[in-house]
Amino acid sequence: MIVGVLKEIKAQENRVCMTPSGVEVLKQNGHTVLVETAAGVGSNFSDDQYKAAGATIVSTPAEVYAKSDMVMHVKEPLPSEYGMVRPGQIVFTYFHFAADEKLTREFMKTGSVSIAYETVTGPNGMGLPLLTPMSEVAGRMAAQEAAKYNERVHGGRGILLGGVTGVAPATVLVLGGGIVGTNAALMAAGLGARVFILDMNLDRLRYLSEVMPKNVTPLMSSPSVVRELSKQADAIIGAVLVVGAKAPKLVTRAMLKDMKPGCVMVDVAIDQGGCFETSKPTTHSDPVYEVDGIIHYCVANMPGGVPSTSTMALTNATLPYAVQIANKGWKQACLDSPGLKNGLNMVGDKITFKGVSDAFGLPYTPADSVL
User: What's the pLDDT tens digit per position in 307-363?
Assistant: First the structure.
């Protein structure tokens, strides 16, 4: 199979979907790898390193799309790429279709096979192995950004998250106890903050009670608990995930008036539409905005801010699946791996992931019927 590695073109996105080591593994499995020139520069990988690993460097994304059986990205393809996607071509990347109706409808027209990193599951349908590494990065970054934008020079409350001797630490509210929330809570706790982490799963809360440090309090989530704790918070981190579907709005605009002025809200769920009613996507070059005196940080590709770490973590997770698809073809790979089959979001104009069809009221086709 010919596998294409594309340069990311989303604003301030410096990750790349595959390291030179990943190229070498695909070559060892008998596949050809095309890498768009300068694709890895933002992650400190040169064209020469890709060539040494056995890749062929090509000059344009159009050439990658024209020659590849499978193309790989980090983020979703942008409008300038829609016309390059060929019928039957495999596109393997983070799509987050349920948050973007235009992307969904445009990809239905391409006739391609869309396999989404974010809905691939682990053995027995448990876990999200291709989302986990970026969730770890985003969760840890969320606490860092909350600390940064709490500084007065950035418009925040002028509070040090950990406080100092004789001065109380900041209060951080984390909504969601999954991978993002767990990492955000651990990082905020490590900085010395007083942390509340909310979830609706009792088993998860028991686990968090066992593993979290003493300055983290796991609590059962409910609208009333979110309302009361949001009034106390100096920072709120939205870490809610409904796999492949839009995130629920847990913080409404009406709640902002009761919050502390300068409170920082970091919406890590923005890829899935955001879990704050007032959220809208931002970029690393213009990351924050203010609504009713509350600072919103809603960067849609947070791990792109630390691309060297993120690219290596992403390749570690995605490469085994890319090899399966290249070795067997997408149909046989999905038949052999139920977890990979769960990543199948669209085949031709058929939506094969229910969360996407539900988001826009579009017809749903079970994946088994296209395999």
Answer: 999 999 999 999 999 999 999 999 999 999 999 999 999 999 999 999 999 999 999
Q: Does domain 2-120+307-370 have CATH number 3.40.50.720?
A: yes
Q: What is the dihedral of CA 186, 234, 145, 158, to 10 degrees?
A: -130
φ, ψ of residue 135 to 5 degrees: the values are: -65, -40
Which CATH number applies to 136-305? Answer: 3.40.50.720
End-to-end CA distance of the chain: 19
- Residue located via tokens 């796991």: 218
Residues of the chain with CATH 3.40.50.720: 2-120+307-370, 136-305
pTM, whole model, 2 decimals? 0.86
Eight-state DSSP code of residue 214: T
Assess whether 271 carries a catalytic annotation. Answer: yes
- Is residue 243 over pLDDT 80? no
Exactly one of 73, 267, 271, 296 is catalytic; name it. 271
What whole-number distance in Å separates Cα of residue 71 and Cα of residue 67?
9
Mean pLDDT of the chain: 96
Stretch 289-314: mean pLDDT: 95
Active site residue 292: no
Q: Give me the amino acid identity at 45.
A: F
Query: Which one of the listed residues 96, 234, 267, 296 is annotated catalytic?
Result: 96
Cα angle at 309 between 61 and 5, to 5 degrees? 20
The per-residue pLDDT for 358 is: 94
